Structures are given as structure tokens and as C-alpha cells.
Amino acid sequence: GPFFLYLPHFGVHAPHQAKPELIARFKDKPAAGGHQNPTYAAMIASVDESVGRVLQTLDDLKLADRTVVIFASDNGGVGGYVREGVKKAGDVTDNAPLRSGKGSLYEGGTRVPFIVRWPGITQPGATCDTPATHVDLFPTFLELAGGRKPAQVLDGVSLTGLFRNPSAQLPRDAVFAHFPGYLGAGPGSWRTLPVGAVWSGDWKLMEFFEDGRLELYNLREDIGEQHNLAAAQPDRAKALQARLAAWRREVGAKMPTPHKAGERPKDFKPAKGEE
Asked: In sequence order, what are the residues at sequence separation of 6 or more whose Cβ sits closer than 8 angstroms to the Cβ of residue 129?
């Protein structure tokens, strides 16, 4: 019968620690594209090695040909904060050309690897540009395994159609996110402020809840989110903001309580080893 394995690696995550022999392998390599931390590189190498063992086991058990493997991450890398002006120094990696990093709703924090191997179905080396999100995984696994749909409402949609044909259409035209809190980056600085986002076609709108500020980006033309088009395209910004508000009502998303003007939470200091 069908089986399911969920394997969440603790790496790559703080505290940044790795096998000494792997750190040594990367220590003298020249920095490239903002990547210069041998410990972080060694942690990635260990994840790579572990994933290789899982794939080897599928081969050994003669299950590889009828097993779907998905490799993904839950957020972008710990970096891009110096470019963003959130930190003065201390980026461990870089998500360039994407903006910011883990903990942010800019693309550097939300756009992650999502690699699928389904022998005989997915085409090796093919890519797909349709936005997907992690709530899509449960409906996908249900369909793959022939499972019964549970009674609760599922937020996601099955991605198996995209695995079969990367240019297929999903039964939705937008993806939404809601982050009604603060995420610190050290005393007095923030990786994100309370914010919501909607991705629709080439467009992404962010609505910052403190002051209602809107940021609108055309991701096809501006993957680095450098040109906020909200003022230049007010109608588009307004339409996407209305969709975001409608989605919040539909799912019962809680909004943060307004605080006094200019007041933010007390300086945030992350716990040791936490980011």
C-alpha cells in the first residue's frame, strides 16, 4: 500500500554548526554570489548527503520508480538583511537577486526550492512558473495516494496536474499570505512588520497593517522588488487590496490590534541560537 515519509531536516538552521571535515572542504573556496560562510555551506552539504541516502534506500528497496519525492524548504535563507537595511552586518547567506530573507514576505523570504521527482511523469530538468504554496501539499498527497478527502475545508489545491504538465492551469488565480505580527532582527529592527500579501499572475501586492501602506510589484519584470508601482497603478493596487481583504474575511484571518502611533513592541532580542 501507499506510504508517506515526512523528513524535516534541522539544517540549515541556527545554531550554525557542521562536521569539521565538511567545513574544511569549503573553507578555502572563494566567495560566490554573496555566499561566503563555510559552516553554512557544510550544513547544506550534510542535507544533500542525507537526501542522497533516502534516494539510495528507495533504489535499494526497488521503490524509486513508483515513489514521488518532493524536496522543499519552508523559507528563504538567513540573508539579504544588510541589503534591506535591516542589519548593519552579519548576513550568513544571500538570496540575491531576491529581496530580503527568512522572516520577510519579500521574495527572499517566501520563494523557496520546490523540486519534484516522479519517475515516468515529471520531465527531468523541466521547470514550472505557476505559484504553489505549502498548503497545496496535503491535497497533492491525498490525490497521489488515493486517500479520502477529510471533512474540513482544505486551503490548498492538488499540484499533480502541474507535475504531469508544467503549463497546466490550477483552479485558482491567486495565492495569499497573512502575517499579523512583528519578527525581530535584533534590538529595534524588524525582519517584517505586520503585513499581508497576494500573488496574482505577474503581480504581487503587500499591505502593511501599521499604516495601510501598499507595495505593488511586477515580479516578471522586477524579481528583486525594487520598483513599487502602487502609486503609478492605483487601480490595480486597489483591486488586489480588495481581493486580499475579501480573502481575510473568507478565512476569518485575525487582524492585529492597533497600537498608539509611533509605538512598536519593546526591542526584541532573539533567544540564543534562534533566528
From this structure: 166
